[in-house]
Design brief:
It contains nine helices and nine strands. It is elongated. A hairpin with a 5-residue loop joins strand 3 and strand 4. Helix 7 runs parallel beside helix 8.
Protein backbone atom coordinates (compact mmCIF):
# COMPACT_ATOMS: atom_id res chain seq x y z
CA UNK A 1 0.00 0.00 0.00
CA UNK A 2 1.42 3.36 -0.98
CA UNK A 3 2.10 5.83 1.79
CA UNK A 4 -0.85 8.14 2.31
CA UNK A 5 -3.31 5.96 0.42
CA UNK A 6 -6.02 4.18 2.38
CA UNK A 7 -7.96 1.38 0.75
CA UNK A 8 -11.22 -0.39 1.47
CA UNK A 9 -11.64 -3.50 -0.66
CA UNK A 10 -14.63 -5.78 -1.13
CA UNK A 11 -14.52 -8.94 -3.23
CA UNK A 12 -17.86 -10.66 -3.76
CA UNK A 13 -18.50 -13.98 -5.47
CA UNK A 14 -21.85 -15.54 -6.19
CA UNK A 15 -22.99 -18.61 -4.20
CA UNK A 16 -21.27 -21.81 -5.29
CA UNK A 17 -24.53 -23.72 -5.68
CA UNK A 18 -25.31 -21.81 -8.86
CA UNK A 19 -24.22 -23.64 -11.98
CA UNK A 20 -23.47 -20.57 -14.05
CA UNK A 21 -20.00 -19.02 -13.75
CA UNK A 22 -19.44 -17.11 -10.53
CA UNK A 23 -18.53 -13.49 -11.28
CA UNK A 24 -16.56 -11.54 -8.74
CA UNK A 25 -16.51 -7.83 -8.27
CA UNK A 26 -13.62 -5.95 -6.77
CA UNK A 27 -14.40 -2.57 -5.23
CA UNK A 28 -11.72 -0.39 -3.77
CA UNK A 29 -12.00 2.99 -2.11
CA UNK A 30 -8.78 4.98 -2.20
CA UNK A 31 -8.31 8.31 -0.50
CA UNK A 32 -5.47 10.71 0.16
CA UNK A 33 -6.06 10.61 3.92
CA UNK A 34 -7.30 7.23 5.07
CA UNK A 35 -10.28 7.04 7.39
CA UNK A 36 -9.51 5.03 10.55
CA UNK A 37 -10.60 1.41 10.15
CA UNK A 38 -12.85 1.60 13.20
CA UNK A 39 -14.50 4.89 12.28
CA UNK A 40 -18.16 5.32 11.37
CA UNK A 41 -17.12 6.60 7.93
CA UNK A 42 -15.14 3.43 7.26
CA UNK A 43 -18.00 1.11 8.25
CA UNK A 44 -20.52 3.15 6.24
CA UNK A 45 -18.35 2.89 3.14
CA UNK A 46 -17.71 -0.81 3.74
CA UNK A 47 -21.44 -1.50 4.05
CA UNK A 48 -22.10 0.45 0.85
CA UNK A 49 -19.39 -1.49 -0.99
CA UNK A 50 -20.78 -4.83 0.19
CA UNK A 51 -24.26 -3.89 -0.94
CA UNK A 52 -23.09 -2.65 -4.33
CA UNK A 53 -20.95 -5.73 -4.99
CA UNK A 54 -23.68 -8.10 -3.82
CA UNK A 55 -26.30 -6.56 -6.10
CA UNK A 56 -23.89 -6.49 -9.03
CA UNK A 57 -23.23 -10.20 -8.58
CA UNK A 58 -26.97 -10.81 -8.25
CA UNK A 59 -27.49 -9.08 -11.59
CA UNK A 60 -25.21 -11.61 -13.26
CA UNK A 61 -26.89 -14.57 -11.59
CA UNK A 62 -30.49 -13.34 -11.53
CA UNK A 63 -33.16 -15.94 -12.25
CA UNK A 64 -34.76 -15.58 -15.64
CA UNK A 65 -37.97 -14.27 -14.12
CA UNK A 66 -36.12 -11.04 -13.29
CA UNK A 67 -34.95 -10.41 -16.83
CA UNK A 68 -37.50 -11.93 -19.17
CA UNK A 69 -41.25 -12.46 -18.87
CA UNK A 70 -41.09 -16.11 -19.87
CA UNK A 71 -42.11 -19.34 -18.17
CA UNK A 72 -39.37 -21.92 -18.48
CA UNK A 73 -38.12 -24.88 -16.51
CA UNK A 74 -35.30 -24.15 -14.02
CA UNK A 75 -32.83 -25.86 -16.32
CA UNK A 76 -34.07 -23.86 -19.30
CA UNK A 77 -33.91 -20.65 -17.29
CA UNK A 78 -30.27 -21.25 -16.44
CA UNK A 79 -29.39 -21.89 -20.05
CA UNK A 80 -31.20 -18.84 -21.40
CA UNK A 81 -29.90 -16.55 -18.64
CA UNK A 82 -26.38 -17.74 -19.34
CA UNK A 83 -26.92 -16.97 -23.01
CA UNK A 84 -28.27 -13.50 -22.21
CA UNK A 85 -25.32 -12.53 -20.05
CA UNK A 86 -22.46 -14.30 -21.78
CA UNK A 87 -23.15 -14.84 -25.46
CA UNK A 88 -24.33 -11.27 -26.02
CA UNK A 89 -20.77 -10.09 -26.39
CA UNK A 90 -19.76 -6.94 -28.22
CA UNK A 91 -16.31 -5.72 -29.18
CA UNK A 92 -15.08 -2.35 -28.00
CA UNK A 93 -12.81 -0.08 -30.02
CA UNK A 94 -9.74 -1.77 -28.53
CA UNK A 95 -11.14 -5.18 -29.63
CA UNK A 96 -11.69 -6.32 -26.04
CA UNK A 97 -15.03 -8.02 -25.29
CA UNK A 98 -17.82 -6.44 -23.27
CA UNK A 99 -21.06 -8.10 -22.13
CA UNK A 100 -24.49 -7.16 -20.85
CA UNK A 101 -23.21 -8.14 -17.40
CA UNK A 102 -20.26 -5.74 -17.65
CA UNK A 103 -22.49 -2.76 -18.41
CA UNK A 104 -25.25 -3.76 -16.00
CA UNK A 105 -22.97 -4.41 -13.04
CA UNK A 106 -21.18 -1.08 -13.49
CA UNK A 107 -24.51 0.76 -13.59
CA UNK A 108 -25.71 -1.00 -10.43
CA UNK A 109 -22.50 -0.29 -8.50
CA UNK A 110 -22.55 3.37 -9.52
CA UNK A 111 -26.22 3.78 -8.56
CA UNK A 112 -25.88 2.07 -5.18
CA UNK A 113 -22.72 3.89 -4.10
CA UNK A 114 -24.16 7.29 -5.02
CA UNK A 115 -27.39 6.50 -3.15
CA UNK A 116 -25.68 5.07 -0.07
CA UNK A 117 -23.02 7.80 0.18
CA UNK A 118 -24.90 10.93 -0.96
CA UNK A 119 -22.83 13.40 1.06
CA UNK A 120 -19.55 12.51 -0.65
CA UNK A 121 -18.14 13.79 -3.93
CA UNK A 122 -18.52 10.63 -6.00
CA UNK A 123 -15.59 9.39 -8.08
CA UNK A 124 -15.67 5.97 -9.75
CA UNK A 125 -12.80 4.69 -11.89
CA UNK A 126 -14.16 1.85 -14.01
CA UNK A 127 -13.61 0.22 -17.37
CA UNK A 128 -16.81 0.71 -19.34
CA UNK A 129 -18.44 3.78 -20.89
CA UNK A 130 -21.76 4.18 -22.68
CA UNK A 131 -20.42 5.20 -26.08
CA UNK A 132 -21.21 1.96 -27.89
CA UNK A 133 -24.60 1.62 -26.15
CA UNK A 134 -25.72 4.96 -27.55
CA UNK A 135 -25.43 3.71 -31.13
CA UNK A 136 -28.65 2.91 -32.97
CA UNK A 137 -27.79 -0.76 -33.43
CA UNK A 138 -27.30 -1.18 -29.67
CA UNK A 139 -30.72 0.06 -28.54
CA UNK A 140 -32.14 -3.43 -28.02
CA UNK A 141 -29.16 -4.32 -25.85
CA UNK A 142 -29.54 -1.06 -23.92
CA UNK A 143 -33.20 -1.83 -23.17
CA UNK A 144 -32.22 -5.30 -21.98
CA UNK A 145 -29.57 -3.85 -19.68
CA UNK A 146 -31.99 -1.23 -18.35
CA UNK A 147 -34.59 -3.87 -17.45
CA UNK A 148 -31.98 -6.10 -15.85
CA UNK A 149 -30.64 -3.21 -13.76
CA UNK A 150 -34.13 -2.18 -12.62
CA UNK A 151 -35.14 -5.75 -11.76
CA UNK A 152 -31.94 -6.24 -9.78
CA UNK A 153 -32.41 -3.04 -7.79
CA UNK A 154 -36.07 -3.89 -7.14
CA UNK A 155 -35.12 -7.35 -5.87
CA UNK A 156 -33.25 -5.75 -2.96
CA UNK A 157 -36.35 -3.99 -1.66
CA UNK A 158 -34.47 -0.84 -0.67
CA UNK A 159 -34.74 0.68 -4.13
CA UNK A 160 -38.13 -0.73 -5.11
CA UNK A 161 -39.47 2.77 -5.76
CA UNK A 162 -36.63 3.55 -8.15
CA UNK A 163 -37.12 2.96 -11.85
CA UNK A 164 -34.23 4.00 -14.04
CA UNK A 165 -34.71 5.06 -17.63
CA UNK A 166 -32.28 4.05 -20.35
CA UNK A 167 -30.75 7.52 -20.04
CA UNK A 168 -30.31 7.00 -16.29
CA UNK A 169 -28.50 3.74 -16.93
CA UNK A 170 -26.21 5.38 -19.49
CA UNK A 171 -25.41 8.12 -16.98
CA UNK A 172 -24.71 5.56 -14.25
CA UNK A 173 -22.31 3.70 -16.52
CA UNK A 174 -20.55 6.95 -17.42
CA UNK A 175 -20.10 7.77 -13.74
CA UNK A 176 -17.15 5.40 -14.01
CA UNK A 177 -15.18 7.77 -16.24
CA UNK A 178 -13.41 9.51 -13.36
CA UNK A 179 -9.67 9.97 -13.87
CA UNK A 180 -8.89 9.28 -10.21
CA UNK A 181 -5.67 10.84 -8.94
CA UNK A 182 -3.78 11.60 -5.71
CA UNK A 183 -6.45 13.80 -4.12
CA UNK A 184 -9.93 13.02 -2.82
CA UNK A 185 -11.79 9.71 -2.55
CA UNK A 186 -12.02 7.33 -5.48
CA UNK A 187 -13.76 3.99 -5.99
CA UNK A 188 -12.17 1.48 -8.40
CA UNK A 189 -14.38 -1.21 -9.94
CA UNK A 190 -13.37 -4.35 -11.78
CA UNK A 191 -16.03 -6.84 -12.91
CA UNK A 192 -13.70 -9.81 -13.12
CA UNK A 193 -15.95 -11.82 -15.41
CA UNK A 194 -15.54 -9.31 -18.23
CA UNK A 195 -11.86 -8.50 -18.11
CA UNK A 196 -9.85 -9.40 -21.18
CA UNK A 197 -6.71 -11.48 -20.57
CA UNK A 198 -3.73 -10.79 -22.80
CA UNK A 199 -1.83 -13.78 -24.16
CA UNK A 200 1.80 -13.80 -23.12
CA UNK A 201 4.90 -15.64 -24.24
CA UNK A 202 7.08 -16.20 -21.18
CA UNK A 203 10.60 -17.58 -21.23
CA UNK A 204 10.18 -20.00 -18.32
CA UNK A 205 11.11 -23.67 -18.06
CA UNK A 206 8.00 -24.80 -16.22
CA UNK A 207 4.78 -24.58 -18.25
CA UNK A 208 2.91 -21.40 -17.25
CA UNK A 209 -0.77 -21.36 -16.38
CA UNK A 210 -2.68 -18.64 -18.20
CA UNK A 211 -5.52 -17.24 -16.12
CA UNK A 212 -7.86 -14.44 -17.13
CA UNK A 213 -8.73 -11.53 -14.83
CA UNK A 214 -7.39 -10.85 -11.33
CA UNK A 215 -7.83 -14.52 -10.41
CA UNK A 216 -4.05 -14.71 -10.88
CA UNK A 217 -3.55 -12.59 -7.78
CA UNK A 218 -6.00 -14.75 -5.86
CA UNK A 219 -4.16 -17.92 -6.86
CA UNK A 220 -0.85 -16.56 -5.59
CA UNK A 221 -2.38 -15.30 -2.36
CA UNK A 222 -3.72 -18.83 -1.70
CA UNK A 223 -0.33 -20.37 -2.36
CA UNK A 224 -1.51 -22.04 -5.58
CA UNK A 225 1.27 -20.35 -7.53
CA UNK A 226 4.64 -18.75 -6.84
CA UNK A 227 5.20 -16.18 -9.59
CA UNK A 228 3.05 -13.91 -11.75
CA UNK A 229 4.83 -12.03 -14.53
CA UNK A 230 3.10 -9.54 -16.79
CA UNK A 231 4.96 -7.91 -19.66
CA UNK A 232 2.42 -6.58 -22.19
CA UNK A 233 3.26 -5.33 -25.65
CA UNK A 234 5.00 -1.99 -26.11
CA UNK A 235 2.65 0.96 -25.81
CA UNK A 236 0.04 -0.84 -23.70
CA UNK A 237 -1.10 1.13 -20.66
CA UNK A 238 -2.05 -0.79 -17.55
CA UNK A 239 -5.43 0.23 -16.09
CA UNK A 240 -5.59 0.51 -12.33
CA UNK A 241 -8.82 -1.53 -12.09
CA UNK A 242 -7.02 -4.54 -13.58
CA UNK A 243 -4.54 -4.67 -10.69
CA UNK A 244 -5.61 -2.60 -7.67
CA UNK A 245 -7.75 -5.20 -5.88
CA UNK A 246 -5.44 -8.09 -6.69
CA UNK A 247 -2.36 -6.22 -5.49
CA UNK A 248 -4.02 -5.62 -2.12
CA UNK A 249 -5.03 -9.29 -1.78
CA UNK A 250 -1.48 -10.48 -2.43
CA UNK A 251 0.05 -7.84 -0.16
CA UNK A 252 -2.31 -8.72 2.69
CA UNK A 253 -1.36 -12.38 2.25
CA UNK A 254 2.32 -11.49 2.67
CA UNK A 255 3.29 -11.32 -0.99
CA UNK A 256 5.04 -8.58 -2.95
CA UNK A 257 3.79 -6.68 -6.01
CA UNK A 258 6.17 -4.40 -7.93
CA UNK A 259 6.99 -3.15 -11.39
CA UNK A 260 9.94 -4.66 -13.25
CA UNK A 261 12.24 -2.21 -11.47
CA UNK A 262 11.19 -3.40 -8.03
CA UNK A 263 9.08 -0.32 -7.27
CA UNK A 264 5.64 -0.58 -5.62
CA UNK A 265 2.71 0.04 -7.97
CA UNK A 266 1.30 3.55 -7.59
CA UNK A 267 -2.48 3.72 -7.99
CA UNK A 268 -2.70 7.48 -7.35
CA UNK A 269 -1.77 8.62 -10.87
CA UNK A 270 -5.23 8.39 -12.40
CA UNK A 271 -6.83 5.66 -14.51
CA UNK A 272 -3.52 4.22 -15.64
CA UNK A 273 -0.43 2.91 -13.86
CA UNK A 274 2.55 5.14 -14.56
CA UNK A 275 4.94 2.45 -15.73
CA UNK A 276 6.40 1.26 -19.01
CA UNK A 277 8.03 -1.97 -17.87
CA UNK A 278 5.98 -4.79 -16.44
CA UNK A 279 4.49 -6.22 -13.25
CA UNK A 280 6.04 -8.86 -10.99
CA UNK A 281 4.19 -10.67 -8.21
CA UNK A 282 5.73 -13.26 -5.90
CA UNK A 283 6.75 -13.83 -2.29
CA UNK A 284 9.46 -11.87 -0.40
CA UNK A 285 11.93 -14.76 -0.59
CA UNK A 286 11.79 -15.13 -4.36
CA UNK A 287 11.47 -11.45 -5.25
CA UNK A 288 15.21 -10.52 -5.16
CA UNK A 289 16.15 -13.47 -7.38
CA UNK A 290 13.21 -12.86 -9.69
CA UNK A 291 14.01 -9.15 -10.09
CA UNK A 292 17.61 -10.04 -10.93
CA UNK A 293 16.53 -12.60 -13.52
CA UNK A 294 14.03 -10.20 -15.09
CA UNK A 295 16.59 -7.39 -15.31
CA UNK A 296 19.13 -9.70 -16.93
CA UNK A 297 16.53 -10.92 -19.40
CA UNK A 298 15.47 -7.37 -20.30
CA UNK A 299 19.10 -6.29 -20.70
CA UNK A 300 19.79 -9.24 -23.00
CA UNK A 301 16.73 -8.40 -25.08
CA UNK A 302 17.73 -4.74 -25.34
CA UNK A 303 21.29 -5.59 -26.39
CA UNK A 304 20.02 -7.89 -29.13
CA UNK A 305 17.93 -5.18 -30.79
Amino acid sequence: MNSGIGITRVLYTCPSNLKTPKPAFSLLRTLATAAPVGSMSYHRELDAAKKAASLAARLCQAPLSLSLSLSLSPRGSEKVQKAILQSDVQSKSDKSPVTVADYGSQAVVSFVLERELPSELFSLVAEEDSGDLQKEEAQETLQRITKLVNDTLASDGTYSASSLSAEDVLAAIDSGKSEGGPHGRHWVLDPIDGTKGLKQKLGVKAPPVRIDSQAKYGALSRGDGAIYLRFPHKGYREKIWDHAAGAIVVTEAGGVVTDAGGNPLDFSKGRYLDLDTGIIVTNPKLMPMLLKAVRESLDEKASSL
